[in-house]
Amino acid sequence: MAEEFEPRIIAFLCKWCSSAGSDLAGVSRMEYPPNVTPIQVMCSGSVSPLYVFSAFHRGADGVLVSGCHPGDCHYIKGNYYARRKLALTKKLLEHVGLEPERFQISWVSAAEGQKYTQIIKDFVNELKPLGPQAKLRRKPSW
Amino acid sequence: MKRTGVFICHCGVNIAGTVDVQKVAQELADYPGVAHSEDYVYMCSDPGQNLIEQAIKDKKLDNIVVACCSPTLHETTFRSTVKRAGLNTFKCEISNIREQCSWVHKDKAKATTKATKLTKSAVARVQKNEALEPLSVPVTHRALVVGGGIAGIQSALDLANTGFEVILVERSPSIGGHMSQLSETYPTLDCSQCILTPKMVEVSKHPKIRLMTYSEVHDVTGYVGNFKVKILRKPTYVVPAKCNLCDECTKVCPIVVPNEFDLGLTGRRAIYIPFPQAIPASYTLDDKSCPELTQIIACGKCADVCKVKAIDFDQKPQIIEEEVGAIVVATGYDLYEKEQMAEYGYGTYADVIDGLQFERLLSASGPTRGQVLRPSDHKEPKEVVFIQCSGSRDPEQHCPYCSKICCMYTAKHAMLYKHHVHDGQAYVFYIDVRSGGKGYEEFVQRAVEEDEVIYLRGKVSKIFEENGKIKIWGVDTLIGKPIEIDADLVVLAQAMRPSTGSRELAKKLRLALDKDGFLAEAHPKLRPVESVTAGMFLAGAAQAPKDIPEAAGQASGAAAKAIMILSQERLFHSPTVALVNKNLCTGCGMCVAVCPYDAIAFKDGRVEVNEVLCEGCGTCSATCLRAAIQVKNFTQHQVHEMIRACLGG
Predict the structure, then answer these.
(1) Distance from the CA of A73 to the CA of which of A29, B205, B347, B518 falls in 20 to 30 A?
(2) Do residue B532 and residue A16 have CB atoms under 8 angstroms apart?
(3) Which of B458, B478, B444 is closest to B385 using CA atoms?
(4) At what angle do helices A49-57 and B636-647 cross, to 10 degrees?
(5) C-alpha B501, offset from chain centre
């Protein structure tokens, strides 16, 4: 029997809310699938669309950007900029034919370890039926 | 390439139990740029740190990565380790393989692969880290305390007695908070006002404290050591310096509204003093109910009788700007809304009241002058039922948390009731009796043994009125029998919740909230008075339900933490700020528009960053079309390298 497809996810987590929330999931020993590799950023507003393209280009099967809840940004309004920028990024990705499920945006506060765990579980479950992401992945000859 | 050292911590079995640390060390040894890789049982221990220092010297390392717990815990530790070994503090990065890996996964092979990826990504980042020195900024030696309850008062006094100027902002007309409403305090039965009012007077007379009551924090900008605060001062329409407290104005005022201080058990006039010992000792004209100010009718009776001309209808709200170096937030609690407790008849039956209302009935300065008389007919109740956990510990319907103080104050209420009504009987419905604290357990036992309070373990299922009595259906789960009591008065130990408006204030101050809306501390165990925002500290029930000694203790702790900042001549600011590449910048100004701190300005057709104002969020860099503005040590190039390391190839 062939081995089950395990999607590779890159998660950009803001330092103050989502990264702290995912740390809380760790401290509380909440289990979630190891498919996600987090990259801590200062603010979701600092996530350039290029990071998202770069991750898909390097072969990520899914990308998550998570920041503080709207209105609760540690940097006052960075997550509002993130929301606008990444909504456009999502449209662009869909326009070029990427499955919409592959790019997700969420808001996880420092107290929401449980929510982070659930987001990762759901994300992995949504990605599994899609199989490997090939649309934006660079060709091996590059 | 720079020579990187990688150090994998076992954290006992916390990491090594789930991650094959030797394998991670081997994999990393072959990774480009890594000149040294090893694992050790506790990297944060002295021998662990010595091992790092030695390796830096022996292997001539340029930078290091420590794969261990969250950077919030030991980043500072390992940055000082590299400093001792002669490297710049920014030559160290943390790979979090505990909270983000070993503690959340079970499959050892997969967790090991993930830990390897995380560590490679940290190597990719540290390879491009520059040596940076902290930026130094001067400190404003003044503190702001928000909230004038016992916690705010204690913090303000501790700060002022250390010699720092304090601005104490309170939104109601007087300081004192809920403690001023209490009758006696457990476990000593000290009179609450008698122990509080000396502190209130000290605040009002203190040369270092500037008291601003009837005022609210309007806006806060700036950063630790240098906050700029705008305070909204609401008009009281009374000039305190002129008012001689003759009380003639309240006698002529035609308007009666519910008295907030007595929680609606009595009325007050539109012009009022909250309670006799109020600080500042002055009247306030409530512009929501005054007919003159609401322009319903021309009244002005209070001004007519005021011989000293203390009433000024022309006062306007004022915005006052102040600079402070540190902020203590002590905004306290409110009781859970009575509308939420419809099942206990709260709000329907006049004789179902909450704990604070019962405090007013017991209080010598209260509406009944300390006699226990029930609100409906002013008769002395002979059977009183106290219901604990009213709204607390009920995740399905109400608040999931324990409000912590109710077990103790209910014991106190039952005891004081018996002291007032000797032939009365007090019943307490409880889930558990939690009496942790010095002298607390003994206090509860005293209520049971001396005052013959009947404790019934169980919840109340229904409350309704019948034949002039309040009928209570409950259950005693210890004997497994239903209980029926005909009570004259029911007192609900309502849950504590964060005070109204604290969510909005938290937004203004950029403070985080926990899931229940209380202010979040930086670390639940070891940084209980610090907020996540540097320079802002938490005190009292704003952070979590707590009683007076705990609130006062935390308030002193918060003051001490604020003093750590205020006593410095200069503070150091993180140098990981934005930097503009003048060769790429076109001066389009998109970064200027998005910067939350106004830290970017135009200069000579390009932009320039004010390093002191910049907080390093990086929103500018994600906005720039030409990648001309980058955060130091977190450049886009570094992030791309990290992505590459995470995904391989």
Answers:
(1) A29
(2) yes
(3) B458
(4) 30
(5) 12
Contact B208, B226 (CB under 8 A): no
Query: How far does the CA of residue A72 sit from the closest CA of chain B (Å)?
Result: 6
Which chain A positions have a beta carbon within 8 Å of B111's beta carbon? 34
Inform me whether the C-beta atom of residue A117 falls under 8 Å from chain B C-beta atoms: yes
Nearest to B250 by CA among B276, B224, B220: B276
User: Phi, psi at residue B272, to the nearest 5°?
Assistant: -160, 160
Q: Report yes or no: B482 and B473 within 8 Å, Cβ to Cβ.
A: yes
Angstrom distance (rounded) from CA B289 to CA B256: 9
What length is written for chain B? 649
Across the range A126-141, mean pLDDT stands at: 90
Q: How many helices (H) and strands (E) does chain A have?
A: 4, 4
How far apart are alpha carbons B430 and B78 in whole angstroms? 50
Mean pLDDT (chain A) is 94
Asked if residues B9 and B67 have their Cβ atoms less than 8 Å apart, the reply is: yes
Check whether A140 has a pLDDT greater than 80. no
- Residue B33: which of B120, B131, B129 has the closest Cα? B120
- CB contact set of B46 (below 8 Å; sequence gap of 6+): none
Suggest the residue from B19, B100, B108, B644 to mutate for an interface test with chain A (most A CBs closer than 10 A): B100
Three-class DSSP labels, B370-427: CCCCCCCCCCCCCEEEEEEEECCCCCCCCCCCCCCCHHHHHHHHHHHHHHHCCCCEEE
Q: Is the pLDDT of residue B347 over 90?
A: no
Q: Which residues of chain A lie closer than 8 angstroms to B641, CB-CB?
A: none
What tokens appear for B277 in the block? 């010992």
Best of B99, B590, B594 to mutate (most A CBs within 10 Å, chain A): B99
Q: Do the chains contact at B99 and A58, CB–CB below 8 Å?
A: no
Record: contact B96-A109, CB cut-off 8 A:
no
Beta-carbon count within 10 A of B516 CB? 15
Whether residue A20 lies within 8 A of chain B, CB to CB, comes out as yes
Percent of chain B past pLDDT 90, that is, above it, reads: 91
Inter-CA distances, A123 with A51, B155, B344, B493, Å: 19, 46, 43, 43
Nearest in space to B394 (alpha carbons), one of B494, B479, B483, B543: B494
Question: Any idea of the CA torsion for B495, B496, B498, B501, to the nearest 10 degrees?
Answer: 80
Cβ-based contacts of A4 with chain B (< 8 Å): none
* pLDDT score of A138: 87
Q: What is the pLDDT of residues B509-563, one digit of tens each?
A: 988 888 899 999 988 888 999 998 889 999 999 999 999 999 999 999 999 999 9
Q: From its phi and psi, is residue B258 left (phi > 0), alpha (psi between -120 and 50) or beta?
A: beta
Total residues found in chain A within this entry: 142
H/E/C letters for each residue in B145-183?
A: EECCCHHHHHHHHHHHHHCCEEEEECCCCCCCHHHHHCC
Paired strand residues for B137: B571
Provide, as residue numbers in chain A, all residues whose Cβ is less than 8 Å from the Cβ of B600: none
| Cross-chain CB nearest to B512 (options A41, A81, A110) | A110
What pLDDT, in 10s, does the model give residues B167-219? Answer: 999 999 999 999 999 999 999 999 999 999 999 999 999 999 999 999 999 99
**Cα dihedral B82, B87, B90, B93 sign:** negative
Instruction: Give the ipTM of the model, two decimals please.
Output: 0.97
List C-alpha distances in Å: B96 to A37, B66, B116: 11, 8, 11
How many CB atoms are closer than 10 A to CB B224?
A: 18
Contacting residues of B for A55, CB less than 8 Å apart: 643, 647
Select the residue of B512, B615, B643 nearest A75 (Cβ to Cβ): B615
